[in-house]
Specification:
Elements lengths: L19 E6 L6 E5 L5 H11 L4 E5 L3 E5 L8 E2 L22 E5 L25 E5 L2 E5 L4 H56 L5 H8 L3 H10 L3 H12 L1
Antiparallel strand pairs: 1-5, 1-6, 2-4, 3-4, 3-6, 7-8
Amino acid sequence: MADADAVPEPVPSGPLKTIVYVACYSSSDPLEDQGPYTYQSSGWCQDLCVNKLNKPVMGLSEGSDCWCGSKLPANSSKVDDSKCNVPCNGYDKDKCGGTDYWSVSLTGLQANVDSIDAPSSSPSGSKSAGPSVVTLGGSTVVVTASGSSSSGKSSGSKAGIAAGVVVGIIVVGAIIGGAWFYLRARKRRALEEEYRRNATINSFTKPGSASSISDSRLEPSVMMQRRMSDGSIADNQDYSRRILK
C-alpha cells in the first residue's frame, strides 16, 4: 500500500465515457484486483481498467482497491447498495464498496455486458436467448438475445405445415372431382337405358291403330250392319207381317 503522505500519481490520460453504476456485489469473481491506491476514486479506477487493461467492468472495494474484468459478477451475489457505503480514499463523494463488498460499474467500453452466470453460447455457435440482467442507476434492465437457431426451426416448421395444407387441399379437390364425374356418368347411363327401353316398347306399337279402330266404329255402313244384325224381336215380327201380305 502506498504511503499516506506520498504525492498522488497522475491520472492516466485518455478518452473516457460516463461510468454506469450496476450494483453492489458480495463476490468479486471474475474481476481481478489491481491493488490499493491511496487516492483511489472511481475516475482513477475507470482509467486504469480502460486505458491500461481495456476492460468493460470495474469494481471498487474497501475505499482503496480497484478491480477490473470482462464480465459482471454473478447476479445471485447482488446485495443492497447500503453494503457499499465506504467513501473512496481520494474522493469521499464516491462510494468505493465496503469490506468484502464491491461497487461494480461499467467503464463505458461496452453498453451491454453479461454476468458470469449468464448462459453461454449454444452448441451451434449462436447465443442463448437467456436474459442478462444489468442494473443502471438503480433501474433494472433485462437484455435478451434472440436465438437464430430457434427462429430457423420455427420457419422450417411453418413451411412444412403450409406444404401439408396444400397437399391436403389437392387431395380433397381430387376426391370431389372424381365423385362428380362418377355421378354424372352414372346419370348419363341411366338416361341412355331409359331411352333404349322406350324405343323398344314403341317398336311394337303401330302408330294410329287405336284411332283407326275408334273411327271405324263411326262409319254408316258398319252402323247399319250392326243395326240389322242386332235387331229386336219386334222388328223381326214386323218384317214377317210384311212378307205375308
